[in-house]
Automatic annotation (TrEMBL):
Domain of life: Eukaryota
Lineage: Eukaryota, Fungi, Dikarya, Ascomycota, Taphrinomycotina
Source species of the chain: Saitoella complicata (strain BCRC 22490 / CBS 7301 / JCM 7358 / NBRC 10748 / NRRL Y-17804)
Name by which UniProt lists this protein: DUF4202 domain-containing protein
UniProt xrefs under PANTHER family: GLUTAMYL-TRNA SYNTHETASE
Pfam families the UniProt entry points to: DUF4202
Amino acid sequence: MSFEPSTRYQKAIEAFTAAHTDDPRPSSTGEPYNVLYHRRLAHFCRELCLAGDNTPSEALLLAANCQHIRRWEHPRSDFSEGLVGYKTWRTKTNRWHSEEGERILLASGYDATEDADLIARFKELVTKKTLQKDDPEMQLFEDAICCVFLENEFDEFKDRYEDNEQKTIVIVQKTWGKMGPLGRGMAVKLLDGMTEREKEIIGKAVGAIVTTRLLYCLQHPVPHLSRLQRIHPRAYFKLQFAGERPKPFRNGRRCPHAKTQEPKLYFCPSKMCRGKHHRFLARILT
């Protein structure tokens, strides 16, 4: 749902920007890094909403202008190395960002009672509490964050791990895995502004993902087959592999060919729409 920027909204954005200007880290444009980061994050949020025929919500734009507020005051180096230290740092900083953002919103004229839902949504976005697949707006926000990384931070990571290309490839793969279709489409557009080396690394990372998924589909064809649905278009299917450790099916009966391995047997109970039930074995050569 679109909104008309209010006085309190403008005041909050100005307060966020004022906090970003204190960032001692310079950006590629010479301005404080946090100023550039949040300006581009808000830009990508608008562009992705436009690509999806939507308009950005007030909570989304507020979160985009506040996501890493004063992060330099809580550096990663204050926490232990490794995955546990990283997750602890990320959890604590996200919570701190949301609390600092809420304080600025209240000081800008937002009411803790009347605007409770908006503030709660703002904090959800900043802390990224909900799963992206269950929350389209959260997925869009994650897409925008990933686009900012590819546009402004990927070059730094590439140089940092210049002697370890595989590390950079893994970082790109994790970033790509977080993105939805809109975000990936935007990421492809960003390739035009990248160097040949950056394009090469991204190509290797994404190419490896596609190859891995293709091989998985070839080695495990049953979840990807639609032939049974075409044979019985009005049935609901659930294929189960009849392997070494068979599971009981309806009425406690087990598949009689449970230990047969070549060709692999899959038991398919189907429930017809008209109330009729059928069972059959599907032989799939893998």
